[in-house]
Amino acid sequence: MPNVDRSRYNSKETLRDFIRHERRIELTLEGTRYFDLKRWKTGKSTLANLKTPGGVQLVFTDLLPFPQSEMDLNPNLKQNTGH
User: Using an 8 Å Cβ cutoff, are 20 and 36 in contact?
Assistant: First the structure.
């Protein structure tokens, strides 16, 4: 990470935006963006207008599906809706 200007990034929100931007730049084309958006729960706002090449609106949810192996191990586990 580059040095952080403490006078410019003096709050939790501005520093978080700086880190997210830096991560986006540093990890370009490494396949982590989608999972970052899921983890940070910013996918709905960031990708609100995303469409397929056929023009179908994509729906971005904040929940990841549970792996089938976890579902098999725990019969009380319910799959997240939409998965």
Answer: yes
How many other CB atoms are found less than 10 A from the CB of residue 37?
Answer: 19
Interatomic CA distance for residues 76 and 48, integer angstroms: 33
Q: What is the pTM of this model?
A: 0.58
Tokens describing residue 25 = 């730049």
CA nearest to 28, candidates 18, 16, 36? 36
End-to-end CA distance of the chain: 36
Looking at residue 2, what is its pLDDT? Answer: 66
> Is the CB of residue 34 less than 8 Å from the CB of residue 50?
no
Return the ∠ at Cα 33 (arms to 31 and 36), rounded to 5°: 125
- pLDDT band per the 50, 70, 90 thresholds, residue 24: very high
